[in-house]
C-alpha cells in the first residue's frame, strides 16, 4: 500500500509541481497518474523512489515513511520503468535484466535462473537474447526487457513512467495487453504515468487525474467516465466518454445483464466476435459492417448468440440505472 | 638514386643510434602519457561533479595548449633548476604531461557529461550508488570519446616530444636537431620519418586498445 499524505513539491522559484496530493494505492492495484503535460504526474511518480525530494507532506509504503528508508535500498525494492526504456547499451540483455540482482549480490546461478524465468514471462527466448545487446532489439522488445528488468528482484511495487509512450499504436496495444496478462500473474502494486485517457481506462484499476499538481479526481475508470467531478475532468476525458466507457465492458457482461439476441435464421456470413471482446470494439464492428447483428462465440468458438446495437443501448441503460440517477448523459442516448 | 643510396647507407651504419633515440622517445612520451591519463581521466570525471571548478580547469588547460612548445620547455628550465633538474628528462616529462591534459580532461569531462540522461536516470532509479553508476554505466558508455582524447594527446606528444631534445631530454629530436646544425638532410628526414612512423604505430595500438575497452553493444 502506498499512501500519499498532503504531498507537495515546490521547485526553486516557488512553482508548485505537486500540490497537496492525498490518495492511497491499494496492494495489487494499477493506479494511473493521468494528466496533460506539466501537470506534475511524473514528478509525483519520481517522489516515490526519491528521485525527487518531498517539500512537505509524506509518502509511506506499508505505513513506513519513505523518508526514513535508505534511498538506495528503497530504489532496489521498487521496479522502475521509463519511456525510453533506459536499458544500458554497454550491457548484454542478460546483464540488463539481472542488474538489480547483481547489485543485491545474488549468486550467478540464481541470477541466471531468474533471467530465464523473466524472459519467458515477457515472451522472449532466453538463450537467443542472452548475449545480444539492446540496440539489436526492436523498440517493443526493448520495452519488454525494460519491464523484465524492473521485475527482476521481485519488488512489490512498480513505477512506470509512460512505459509504452514511445511505441507505435499497434505495438503499444499489444504490450498493454501483455502487461495486463503479466500483472495477473505477478500482482504488483503499480503507479503508471500516462497522458493518454484510453491507456488509462484500459490499464488502470483507478485513475488519478491531475492538473497543475492537484488531483482533480481519483476514481475507478468507470466512475471517472460516468461521474466527472468538474469541467476539467469532463473536458479531459472528452465528449465521447460514453463510447470510451464501453471499452470497460465485455460481451460477457452484456450477456449477464441483458442477454444476447437469437441467432439469425437465414445463412449468415458476417463477422463473429469473441465473448471476451469489449463493447466499444463490438459497437465499432457493428457499425463497420452495417449489419444488424454480429455473432458471438464462446471460448470454444461455439456460436452462442448475437449482439445488436439495440442490445448495447439497453445494456448501457441498465448498467447506468443500476448505479445512478437520471441526470446522466445516457438518458438522452437510450430513450 | 644517389641520395637514396647514401641515406640507406647512413641508416645501416647508424641504426643502433637511431633505435636508441627512438626508445628514448617512446620512453619519454609513453611515461608521460601514462601519468597524464592517470591524472586527466579521474580529474575529468571529478569535474563533472564540480561545475565551478570545471570552467577554471578547462580554461587553464586551454591556456597551456596555447603556449608554444619550445617556450614551455624553456619555462621548465628555471623552475626545475631549483631541484637541480633544469635540463634532461624531468622537465620534458612534466611539459608533455601538461600538454596532454586538455584533450584528455576535456574529452573525459564531455563524454561523461553527455552520457544519455535517461541512462543516468535509470541507473539512479534502479538503485545504483554513485560509484556503481560511474563504473557500470557512465565510464563504459564514455570510453570511445575518452580514448579519442587519449589518442589525440599521444599523437600530439610524439610530435612535441621531438622538440624536447632542445632541453637535453634526448629522443628523435636529437637527430633532427643535428641534421639542422650540420645541414644534413639525411638526419632530418630520418628523424622526421621515425617520428611519423612512431605516431602512426601508437595511434594504431591505441585504436586496438579502444576497441578492446569498448562494449560490443556500442559498436556493432
TrEMBL record, chain A:
Localization per record: Cell inner membrane
Membrane topology classification: Peripheral membrane protein
GO BP terms in the entry: amino acid transport; glycine betaine transport
Superkingdom, natural source: Bacteria
EC number(s) on file: 7.6.2.9
Catalyzed reactions per annotation: a quaternary ammonium(out) + ATP + H2O = a quaternary ammonium(in) + ADP + phosphate + H(+)
Stored InterPro entries: AAA+_ATPase, ABC_transporter-like_ATP-bd, ABC_transporter-like_CS, Gly-betaine_transp_ATP-bd, P-loop_NTPase
GO cellular component: plasma membrane
Domain ABC transporter: 2-237
MF terms in GO: ABC-type quaternary ammonium compound transporting activity; ATP binding; ATP hydrolysis activity
Transcription regulation keyword on record: no
Presence of keyword Cell membrane: yes
Keywords assigned by UniProt, alphabetized: ATP-binding, CBS domain, Cell inner membrane, Cell membrane, Membrane, Nucleotide-binding, Repeat, Transport
Signal peptide coordinates: none
Quaternary structure and interacting proteins, as annotated: The complex is probably composed of two ATP-binding proteins, two transmembrane proteins and a solute-binding protein. The complex is composed of two ATP-binding proteins (OpuCA), two transmembrane proteins (OpuCB and OpuCD) and a solute-binding protein (OpuCC).
Family statement: Belongs to the ABC transporter superfamily.
PANTHER family referenced in this protein's UniProt entry, alphabetically: OSMOPROTECTANT IMPORT ATP-BINDING PROTEIN OSMV
NCBIfam families xref list: proV
Protein name: Quaternary amine transport ATP-binding protein
Species per Swiss-Prot/TrEMBL record: Scopulibacillus darangshiensis
From TrEMBL, chain B:
Residue ranges of domain ABC transmembrane type-1 in the record: 22-206
GO cellular component: a single term: plasma membrane
Principal location: membrane
GO biological process per UniProt: glycine betaine transport; transmembrane transport
Keyword presence, DNA-binding: no
Protein localization: Cell membrane; Membrane
Topology term for the membrane: Multi-pass membrane protein
Keywords (A to Z) from UniProt: Membrane, Transmembrane, Transmembrane helix, Transport
Similarity-based family: Belongs to the binding-protein-dependent transport system permease family.
Protein name: Osmoprotectant transport system permease protein
Amino acid at each position: 500500500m502506498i499512501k500519499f499524505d498532503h504531498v507537495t513539491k515546490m521547485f526553486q522559484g516557488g512553482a508548485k509541481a505537486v500540490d497537496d496530493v492525498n490518495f492511497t494505492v491499494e496492494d495489487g492495484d494499477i493506479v494511473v497518474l493521468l494528466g496533460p503535460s506539466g501537470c506534475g504526474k511524473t514528478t509525483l511518480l519520481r517522489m516515490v523512489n526519491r528521485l525527487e525530494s518531498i517539500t512537505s507532506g509524506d509518502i509511506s509504503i506499508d505505513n513506513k515513511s519513505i523518508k526514513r528508508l535508505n534511498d538506495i535500498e528503497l530504489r532496489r525494492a521498487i521496479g522502475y520503468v521509463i519511456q525510453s526504456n533506459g536499458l544500458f547499451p554497454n550491457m548484454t540483455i542478460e546483464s540488463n535484466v539481472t542488474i538489480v540482482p547483481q547489485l543485491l549480490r545474488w549468486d550467478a546461478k540464481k541470477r541466471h535462473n531468474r533471467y530465464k524465468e523473466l524472459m519467458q514471462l515477457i515472451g522472449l527466448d532466453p538463450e537467443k537474447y542472452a548475449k545480444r545487446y539492446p540496440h539489436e532489439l526492436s523498440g517493443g522488445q526493448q520495452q519488454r526487457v525494460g519491464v523484465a528488468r524492473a521485475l527482476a528482484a521481485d519488488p512489490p511495487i512498480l513505477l512506470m513512467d509512460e512505459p509504452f509512450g514511445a511505441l507505435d499504436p499497434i505495438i503499444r496495444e499489444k504490450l498493454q495487453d501483455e502487461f495486463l496478462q503479466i500483472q495477473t500473474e505477478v500482482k504488483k502494486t503499480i503507479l503508471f504515468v500516462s497522458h493518454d485517457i484510453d491507456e488509462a481506462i484500459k490499464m488502470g484499476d483507478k485513475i488519478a487525474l491531475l492538473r497543475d499538481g492537484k488531483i482533480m479526481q481519483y476514481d475507478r475508470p468507470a466512475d471517472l467516465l460516468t461521474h466527472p467531478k468538474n469541467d476539467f475532468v469532463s473536458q479531459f476525458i472528452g465528449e465521447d466518454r460514453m463510447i470510451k466507457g464501453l471499452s470497460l465492458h465485455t460481451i460477457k457482461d452484456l450477456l449477464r445483464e441483458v442477454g444476447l439476441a437469437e441467432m439469425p435464421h437465414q445463412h449468415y456470413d458476417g463477422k463473429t466476435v469473441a465473448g471476451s471482446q469489449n463493447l466499444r470494439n463490438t459497437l465499432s464492428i457493428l457499425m463497420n459492417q452495417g449489419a444488424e447483428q454480429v455473432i458471438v462465440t464462446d471460448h470454444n468458438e461455439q456460436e452462442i448468440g448475437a449482439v445488436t446495437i439495440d442490445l448495447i443501448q439497453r445494456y448501457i441503460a441498465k448498467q447506468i440505472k443500476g448505479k445512478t440517477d437520471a441526470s446522466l448523459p445516457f438518458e438522452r442516448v437510450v430513450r | 638514386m644517389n641520395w637514396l643510396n647514401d641515406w640507406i647507407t647512413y641508416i645501416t651504419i647508424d641504426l643502433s643510434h637511431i633505435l636508441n633515440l627512438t626508445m628514448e622517445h617512446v620512453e619519454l612520451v609513453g611515461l608521460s602519457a601514462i601519468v597524464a591519463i592517470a591524472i586527466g581521466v579521474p580529474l575529468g570525471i571529478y569535474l563533472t561533479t564540480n561545475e565551478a571548478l570545471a570552467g577554471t580547469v578547462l580554461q587553464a588547460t586551454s591556456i597551456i595548449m596555447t603556449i608554444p612548445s619550445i617556450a614551455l620547455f624553456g619555462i621548465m628550465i628555471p623552475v626545475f633548476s631549483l631541484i637541480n633538474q633544469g635540463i634532461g628528462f624531468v622537465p620534458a616529462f612534466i611539459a608533455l604531461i601538461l600538454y596532454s591534459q586538455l584533450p584528455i580532461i576535456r574529452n573525459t569531462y564531455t563524454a561523461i557529461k553527455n552520457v544519455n540522461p535517461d541512462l543516468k536516470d535509470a541507473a539512479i532509479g534502479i538503485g545504483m550508488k554513485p560509484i556503481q553508476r560511474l563504473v557500470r554505466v557512465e565510464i563504459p558508455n564514455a570510453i570511445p570519446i575518452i580514448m579519442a582524447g587519449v589518442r589525440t594527446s599521444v599523437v600530439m606528444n610524439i610530435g612535441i616530444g621531438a622538440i624536447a631534445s632542445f632541453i637535453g631530454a634526448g629522443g628523435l629530436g636529437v637527430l633532427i636537431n643535428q641534421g639542422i646544425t650540420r645541414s644534413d638532410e639525411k638526419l632530418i628526414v630520418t628523424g622526421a620519418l621515425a617520428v611519423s612512423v612512431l605516431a602512426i604505430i601508437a595511434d594504431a595500438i591505441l585504436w586496438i586498445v579502444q576497441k578492446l575497452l569498448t562494449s560490443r553493444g556500442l559498436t556493432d
